[in-house]
Write a structure and sequence with these properties.
By secondary structure, this protein is mainly α. Helix content is 59%, strand content 0%. It is flat and about 180 Å long. It starts with 19 loop residues before the first helix and ends with a helix.
């Protein structure tokens, strides 16, 4: 095209390859981190992918693990070839042998000669499972040699279940010359068709593997049931317990059709919980309480029945079925051994060598188990006659299940009664402790009220001593009850109280109260006879009458008598003062009366108490 005119814009060039800027950016990041771009591998055909989430290149840092990885040095051609052969997602390449491909196609298209489609499919499933890598000839040898290391119990069960019938195997023998034209399942069946008594042999091998499990299923059950039958019949405690239940039932059934019963069915034992009293407690609880009170030795009656729990899980029908299966398997084994003793043309057949000793041992053990079972059956028949029940309708399993249920219910009821008593005892102790605490609290409160009751009559005795004792011991300051405070004055009354408290000196209140008490003591003294100064009269004090002369006693004698009386009065007053001072010192020693204005209310209360005294 012609060049654009001068000054015009040049048209854009052709676009680069797709993703070109992103590739350049990745290369720059890898170069900056000292890495090289990963190699692009070449594989033949399509190969399965690894569905991982790749790490973005722009997220890499110098400290990242992937910046130091160089996996290409570990690559090899053999690794690539193994990956191609194992994980190729395309059909096999042309380099594979055409014969294998053709044979596979022929097997898929071959028609079945003898077997039906379902039987062939089942055998194909077995061949694709445990026998996938085992050739037919090798499996045939394992069956002839009785090699149980290869013939597991699951494999034997599959072969027994899916192998063709003997008639079909005989028909397959007719196609021995046409082996290549048979289907895969028929080829497999044909490779085993010439083994005599193939399926019975496989069953005998399975029986050998399963025999120990059969014995463990039968023998413990027979032993437990036998022991339980003997225990129930011989237990004296259980028998006495049944007698008590019969007595209680006959008493309760008075006037009904079941009165005066000679016995009851053992199946009634678990139903004792169905009868309840007015307090919704069951008859079983009553039975337990009666036994605990009158027959305490029966409380642990179940100690004489240790095998009852195991016998409750024993089914005579199941044990008998297992013994019959064991006996039939041993008979088939013995028949196979007889056939093998006639001689076998196959040198790999070692059936007699592998199974002969096992057959003898199993026959002996089976005979012992059958004898034990007959003994158990005889004992249970004796129990049915002993307790009078039909053993056909009331089986061994049901019989021991009912006894086990009753035993468990009895234990649970007794434990419940003990727990209930323990709970009641705890509640009673808590109630007594609460009542005692309330009583003590009431006594302390009454004592405190007596100590601080200033409105009590004046003739109460020992109040001051009790008060001092309470102050010394600290009981007067107990916090059991909150102290009630009088409502605080407000307004002008409160300001007047503050002014009065400020006007008082440190000891003014206490000193004033002491003076008041002393004045009250003097006023309460008996009146005295005033002296006249002489017989003939003289100057008398104001407000006094002239004292008469008694029996001619002179004025000197009267003066002496008056002096002695005045001394006695002074001594009495001094004694009162000393008593008050001593009480004051004792109270001060307890820390209640201090020379401070803060204790004013306490001093007032004390002085009121002293006045009351």
């Amino acid at each position: 095209p012609p060049p654009p005119p001068f000054g015009a814009l040049r048209p854009p060039g052709p676009p680069g390859p797709p993703g070109f800027p992103a590739v350049v950016q990745q290369v720059d990041i890898l170069t900056r981190l000292g890495m090289k771009r990963k190699k692009k591998w070449t594989v033949e055909g399509q190969i399965k992918r690894t569905n991982w989430k790749a790490v973005p290149v722009n997220k890499l840092t110098e400290n990242a693990f992937w910046t130091k990885v160089d996996e290409e040095r570990l690559a090899s051609q053999s690794l690539i070839e193994n990956l191609q052969s194992r994980f190729s997602s395309k059909p096999p390449s042309k380099s594979m042998t055409n014969e294998a491909k053709n044979s596979t196609a022929k097997k898929k298209t071959k028609e079945l000669k003898v077997l039906d489609a379902k039987a062939a499919q089942n055998l194909s499933v077995v061949l694709g499972g445990a026998l996938k890598h085992l050739p037919y000839a090798e499996l045939r040898k394992c069956i002839l040699r009785c090699d149980t290391s290869v013939l597991t119990e699951n494999l034997l069960q599959s072969l027994i279940q899916y192998l063709p019938t003997p008639d079909q195997l005989n028909r397959l023998l007719e196609y021995q010359n046409d082996y290549d034209n048979l289907a895969e399942a028929e080829q497999f069946a044909l490779s085993l068709a010439d083994i005599k008594r193939l399926v019975p042999r496989l069953k005998s091998l399975k029986f050998k593997l399963h025999y120990s499990e059969l014995v463990q299923d039968c023998k413990p059950d027979i032993v437990a049931a036998t022991a339980a039958c003997e225990e129930v019949k011989k237990s004296k405690k259980f028998a006495k317990l049944l007698e008590i239940i019969l007595l209680i039932g006959n008493i309760m059934n008075t006037g009904s059709k079941n009165e005066q019963s000679v016995g009851f069915d053992i199946s009634y034992l678990p139903k004792l919980t169905n009868t309840k009293d007015r307090d919704q407690k069951t008859l079983l609880h009553f039975l337990v309480e009666t036994i605990e009170r009158d027959y305490p030795d029966l409380l642990q009656f179940y100690d004489e029945l240790p095998y009852v729990d195991k016998a409750a899980r024993v089914s005579m029908e199941g044990v008998m079925k297992a013994l019959k299966q064991m006996d039939n398997s041993i008979k088939n084994l013995e028949m196979d051994l007889q056939n093998a003793a006639r001689g076998s043309t196959d040198p790999d057949d070692r059936f007699e060598e592998a199974m002969g000793q096992f057959s003898k041992e199993t026959r002996q053990q089976c005979d012992v188990l059958q004898t034990m079972y007959q003994n158990m059956e005889t004992l249970f028949s004796g129990l049915s006659e002993y307790f009078v029940f039909d053993k056909q309708k009331y089986t061994l399993e049901e019989f021991f299940t009912d006894i086990k249920t009753f035993k468990d219910q009895f234990k649970g009821a007794y434990e419940g009664i003990l727990k209930e008593r323990e709970t009641e005892a705890k509640l009673a102790r808590a109630r007594e402790a609460r009542e005692k605490a309330d009583k003590e609290r009431s006594e302390r409160a009454a004592k405190k009220r007596a100590l601080v009751d200033f409105n009590a009559p004046d003739d109460q005795e020992g109040v001051m001593d009790s008060l001092l004792e309470a102050l010394k011991t600290g009981s007067a300051f107990s916090r059991d009850q909150k102290r009630k405070r009088a409502p605080r004055a407000a307004g002008a009354e409160r300001r007047a109280q503050l002014n009065r408290s400020r006007s008082r000196g440190p000891n003014s209140t206490f000193s004033k109260d002491l003076v008041d008490i002393l004045m009250e003591v003097e006023e309460n003294q008996p009146p005295t006879i005033p002296s006249s100064g002489g017989v003939g009269g003289g100057n008398l004090p104001p407000n006094s009458a002239p004292e008469p002369v008694l029996g001619g006693i002179d004025s000197a004698a009267l003066a002496q008598r008056r002096e002695r009386r005045n001394q006695r009065q002074a001594a009495h007053i001094n004694q009162n003062h000393n008593n008050i001072n001593s009480r004051e010192r004792e109270v001060s020693a307890t820390g209640i009366i201090e020379n401070s204005n803060d204790n004013g209310p306490t001093e007032d209360a004390l002085m009121r108490k002293l006045r009351a005294l």
